[in-house]
Amino acid sequence: MATQRQLFLQHLAQVSPEPLSIEIDRARGCLLIDKKGKRYLDLISGIAVSNLGHNYPSVNRAIQKQLKKYTHVMVYGELVESPQVLLASRLAGLLPKSLGSVYFVNSGNEAIDGAIKLAKRYTGRSEIISFRHGYHGSGQGALSVMGDEYFKNSFRPLVPGNKIIRFNEMEDLEKIGKKTAAVIVEPVQGEGGYIPADQKWLTLLRDRCTVMEALLIFDEVQTGYGRTGSLFAFEAYQVVPDILCLAKGFGGGLPLGAFISSTQIMNSLTHDPVLGHITTFGGHPLSCAASLATLKVLLEKEYIAEVPQKEALFRKLLKHDRIKKINGKGLMLALEFESEEFNRKLITKCIENGVFTDWFLFNANSMRLSPPLIISKDEIKRACKLILRSIHEIS
Question: pTM here?
Answer without folding.
Answer: 0.96
